[in-house]
Design brief:
- By secondary structure, the chain is α/β, with parallel strands linked by helices.
- The protein has 2 domains: 209 residues, Spore Coat Polysaccharide Biosynthesis Protein SpsA, Chain A, CATH 3.90.550; 41 residues, no CATH class.
- It has 10 helices and 8 strands.
- It has an 8-stranded mixed β-sheet with strand order 3-2-1-4-7-6-8-5, sandwiched between helices.
- α9 packs antiparallel against α10.
């Protein structure tokens, strides 16, 4: 079964929509738990999650009173945890509380395709212990459409956390989880380890993700800085150097 782990920080705009999306597009028989790990939100994100959990519990009680089948989504455990700020820390913390044999790390503004859970399980049964979905930005800009199209290929340069990440718990623990020294680029550090082990597959189904940072910073400006960070890491830049560059040019 799959444990879905969602790190959040001020995601009131998206987290409720994502939880409902997960409910509508998966089979509860495949999902052991959904863990939302909050890093100190002040925009009401936590309240949205607790309200969603309360509504699910109410629905569970209502259906149990009518002898509902146990396979209903309402049986999936959903929890809200509080953690130190930082996606790597939040995702590691969530993984320690998870129940499933497969971990699925998902950003709050990324919406996986219908039946995503079954696609992931099918890949693991084939022996593919880690991977992601191809991605589609919610934007019609030609460059973002091209960037989305390129994510179907297995090239490491086309990888990123917005595509989501599934990985068996045993492999995740063998690697040591996310490197908490990285406040940014933590997804790519883990992905690099997976590529070294030749354990990565791209599922040819589209996950839709927000282009909000591109809209905020500017498409070409942000792409330039992302490329620069990628090259800096390739040339051996430290986690602190990359974070300083990100804060100076993007944050």
């Amino acid at each position: 079964m799959i444990s879905i782990i969602i790190p959040v920080l001020n995601e009131a705009e998206n987290i409720g929509k994502l939880l409902q999306h997960l409910r509508d597009n998966s089979d509860s028989n495949n999902i052991s738990d959904i863990i939302v790990v909050d890093g100190g939100s002040i925009d009401g994100s936590q309240k949205i999650v607790t309200n969603f959990i309360a509504s699910i519990h109410f629905e569970r009680c209502e259906k149990l009173s009518r002898e509902a089948q146990k396979s209903d989504f309402a049986q999936t455990d959903i929890s809200l945890l509080n953690s130190s700020k930082g996606r790597a820390k939040q995702m590691n913390f969530g993984s320690k509380q998870s129940k499933g044999e497969i971990l699925y790390f998902l950003h709050a503004d990324s919406f996986p395709p219908k039946d995503f859970d079954q696609y992931i399980i099918d890949e693991v049964r084939k022996g593919n212990e880690a991977g992601c979905f191809r991605m589609q930005f919610e934007s019609n800009h030609w460059w973002l459409r091209l960037a989305s199209w390129l994510t179907q290929f297995s090239w490491r340069a086309c990888r990123g956390g917005d595509q989501s990440q599934f990985i068996t718990k045993s492999l995740f623990e063998a690697i040591g989880g996310y490197n908490e020294n990285y406040i940014i680029y933590e997804d790519n550090i883990l992905i690099n380890e997976l590529y070294k082990r030749k354990q990565f597959v791209v599922i040819n189904k589209k996950l839709k993700t927000s282009a909000r940072l591109y809209k905020k910073v500017g498409i070409w400006k942000l792409q330039y800085h992302f490329w620069t960070i990628y090259i800096k890491r390739w040339l051996g830049a430290s986690a602190d150097d990359m974070l300083a560059y990100y804060k100076r040019n993007i944050a």
